[in-house]
Amino acid sequence: MSRFLRAPFDAMEPYVPGEQPRDKAYIKLNTNESPFSPSPGVLRAVAQEAASLKLYSDPECTSLRQTAAELFGISPDNIFCGNGSDEVLNFAFMAFCGKDKGMAFPSISYGFYPVFANLYALEYDAIPLKDDFTVDPADYFHLDKNIVIANPNAPTGLSLSVSQVRSILDTNRDNLVILDEAYVDFGGESCLPLIREYDNLLVVQTFSKSRSLAGARLGFGLAQKEIIADLNKIKYSTNPYNINRETLAAGEAALREQSYYDANCKKIMENRDFTAKALEALGFEVLPSKANFLFARTPKMGGEALYLALKDKGILVRHFSRKEIADFLRITIGSMEQMQALVSAVQEILK
């Protein structure tokens, strides 16, 4: 680092994204991307929008918000559009959390939560999961802190019910509860309808997973209009044109072809069930995932060793070095052919 970087950034540990090696062709099951192409309408919309790139994008994301509002049955005033859900989360940490209001989130969850907290010098509690890796709602009752929970959680894939989320909202009426629903379309229960009842709820969703637009960088914040106005204040104070023209067009087209993505989610859930059963037949412990990935371990081999052996065979999965989960691998669910290749490789390695 340079001598100009100011404290406390010099000691901050940044988020580590999934590896993107270029040395050979891999079956890529490490970053929870979709195995399916964007819908035909998305490809047409992006191609048509390319001719207008000389012009700035719409800072209000008017057409995209209107289309989303029609799909979700809410008002455009309830929708904030971000450059990926990461930007929505970043703005929420910036806008609503400070020295007078700390944060709480699960100790094993999305790695950006402690990064954002440290970025803004926030005090936070990293609350341990239960022994079975679930989030206990009671641990979040009456905290007097803002709360962020990934639901389904990452990297475990485990999910809270709507009634469990309600219990957290009801016991934290004076605190913001941020629900990160990046993986909700793969069998979880969305709490989006609850924004009509709770002014302390912000639901965050993304186009990266179920809508095959990880490379486009598009996410949503969904809440009552006052929270959305606060997020827009942050946006207009940093980057009003935060979403490019092609991504806006892609997002709108994707929402208009929702049935295409619903069918893809169904296929991914079927592939997830196949993979879970195949790994369990090989002696793995597999957590009951509601996401587009599995979290699994085998008593026959350490997590890091299995990750490296799979990589040597051209299959990338995600391994975390944290002690509590070091024996687990997070395995993105891809096409059936990819999952069959994974299972075959695991069989060979374990032999």
SSE inventory with pairings:
Elements: E1 27-28, H1 40-49, H2 62-72, E2 79-82, H3 84-96, E3 103-106, H4 112-119, E4 124-127, E5 146-150, H5 162-170, E6 177-180, E7 201-206, E8 219-222, H6 225-236, H7 245-256, H8 258-281, E9 285-286, E10 293-297, H9 303-312, E11 315-316, E12 318-319, E13 329-332, H10 336-350
Parallel strand pairs: 1-11, 3-4, 3-5, 5-6, 6-7
Antiparallel strand pairs: 2-8, 7-8, 9-10, 10-13, 12-13
Can you give a write-up of this model?
- This protein has 351 residues and is of the alpha/beta class.
- The chain is 35% helix and 14% strand.
- The chain contains ten helices and 13 strands.
- The chain has helices at residues 40-49, 62-72, 84-96, 112-119, 162-170, 225-236, 245-256, 258-281, 303-312, 336-350; strands at residues 27-28, 79-82, 103-106, 124-127, 146-150, 177-180, 201-206, 219-222, 285-286, 293-297, 315-316, 318-319, 329-332.
- The strands form three sheets. A seven-stranded mixed sheet has the order 2-8-7-6-5-3-4, sandwiched between helices. Strands 9-10-13-12 form a four-stranded antiparallel sheet, covered by helices on one side. It has a two-stranded parallel ribbon with strand order 1-11.
- Helix 4 links the parallel strand 3 and strand 4.
- The chain is globular.
- The protein starts with 26 loop residues before the first strand and ends with a helix.
Q: What's this, in brief?
A:
This protein is α/β, with parallel strands linked by helices and 351 residues long.
